[in-house]
Amino acid sequence: MATIREGGPYQWQAQVHRKGQSPQYKTFNNKAAAEKWARQVEAEMDRGVFIPRKDAEKTTLSDALDRYLRKVTIHKKNQRS
Description:
It is built from three helices and three strands. It has helices at residues 31-47, 54-58, 61-71; strands at 2-8, 11-16, 24-28. A hairpin with a 2-residue loop joins strand 1 (2-8) and strand 2 (11-16). The longest helix is centred in the middle third of the chain and has 17 residues, at 31-47.
């Protein structure tokens, strides 16, 4: 069940709690965006395709490129260049 609450002027926090899933929180500038996000997360949880975004949001481009270099490039034909 999603909960939308006002966190201050122009701040709305959406909270989604589901059994078996870690709670998800996100803050928005308007209520409509918070409701839309909460519905999307709930639908993904219902379908069983939800992946927590916290780790993905913390990943930088540099981290992603380094990982690609270590995991994918070594299997390429011309890996040295």
